[in-house]
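#lab-general

N.A. 3:47 PM
ok so I finally got the sequence cleaned up, no stray characters, all 157 residues accounted for. can someone with queue access submit it? mine expired

B.Y. 3:52 PM
send it over

N.A. 3:53 PM
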Amino acid sequence: MGLIHMMAAQRDLQRKMGYDIPNMTQTERIAYIHENATNVIAEIVEALGEIDWKSWVNTENIHEERCFGELRDAWQCLTNMMFAVLPNYDDIALADLLEAKLIEKHRINIARIEAGYDGRTTKCPECKRALDDADVECMKSTAGYHCAVTGVTTYAS
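B.Y. 4:20 PM
back already:
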């Protein structure tokens, strides 16, 4: 079963649960995204509960099946969020977009590794977004930074 089929199955599940995402109001979509974001966090925390990560624990176990189950649940919630963010995309278009955006992000991450990215000095000081991300319009110049989100220009001293 490929990504498109997995998305179709998840979308079908949401419909059966009564969620008609393409016909939700903006307010309903925001609430749905918020609920699923909260669920993602909960599922990731539950996944952490399936590994022995605490420094004072004398074992090093990964309860693989249970941990993977929690990660699967987190994936479902992330997919629900994608549906709500782009409600007019069908499963093929959404899968294609996700693939393209992941490939683009991999290229950026490889370039960051090669350039010695430190996660701080190449971010907008206002909105904290990475300047090299494709959708970021903030700019660094010899004078300082201009944040496209806030409209604030921070001048270098």
